[in-house]
Amino acid sequence: MIKGTTRKRTFRAIYRLLDQVSPVPFDCGRICGAACCHADGLPEMGMFLLPGEDKIHQKTDDWLSWEMLDTDLYDFPPSWQGKVCFVNCQGPEHCKRALRPIQCRTFPLKPVFLKADETLPGLVFRGKEGLALIYSDDELPYACPLITSQARLDPDFIRATYTVWKHLIRDPLIYDYIKEEGTVSPD
Ligand code: SF4
Ligand code: SF4
After folding, report:
1. Which listed ligand is nearest to 90 at the C-alpha?
2. What is the mean pLDDT of residues 174-185?
3. Label partner for 119 (CA 20 to 30 A): which of 61, 62, 95, 103?
4. For residue range 103-148, what is the model confidence (pLDDT) as tens digits?
């Protein structure tokens, strides 16, 4: 299994921080039927955990199903050597919200690195260190109304999400992942 440098207690703090915010000040799942959470029949709607994020999960917990995937078979950065955790959930009715992965918590934003003179469509926030947040431009098997309408997101959510990624990129593996950016999907 690939080993990141982010500690278990940091992941716990990140989960706690993101527990306090939401992309918009209402349940956006109501407008789309929680499109980003319905994994039924769509195994690709599972997600990779970040290196070390598995430390705060119990693999025996049956609301998530687990697979260990070989990084060589997927489009990960070269520094990701070994196995990564891929989890599939059973949808919102079974979701243990306090344990939902970081990828669920920071969506629909996506971290990217931008040079000072660079910009990207869907840019939401630009930090001082080159780290920025855009609306996710990943290819998704559903349409997220927040992305399609470029909805105004809650400033607290944007700030918390930025803070989280700023901490996470201290881990060289996560830094490389964001640097390479792009969808991580099976070949
Ligand atoms: S798809 Fe978008 S609008 Fe729908 S629940 Fe997910 S984040 Fe909210
Ligand atoms: S873990 Fe929870 S928040 Fe994440 S996709 Fe599944 S149901 Fe949605």
Report:
1. 2
2. 73
3. 103
4. 999 999 999 999 888 988 999 999 988 999 999 998 888 899 999 9
Q: Is 46 in the pocket of ligand 2 (CB under 6 A)?
A: no
In a domain, 187, yes or no: no
Quick check: CB of 109 below 6 Å from ligand 1? no
Flag whether 186 is in a domain: no
Please report the DSSP string for 33-87 in residue order. TSGGG--TT-GGGSEEPPTTGGGGS-TT-TTEEEEEEEGGGBT--TT--SEEEEE
Amino acid at 50: L
Report pLDDT digits (tens) over 22-42: 999 999 999 999 999 975 555
pLDDT at position 185 is: 37
Decide: 92 in ligand 2 pocket, CB within 6 A: yes
Residue 67 belongs to a domain: yes
Residue 23 maps to a domain: yes
Sign (positive or negative) of CA dihedral 17, 160, 155, 176: negative
Number of domains in the chain: 1
Is the entire prediction scored with pTM above 0.85?
yes
Domain region containing 78: 8-180
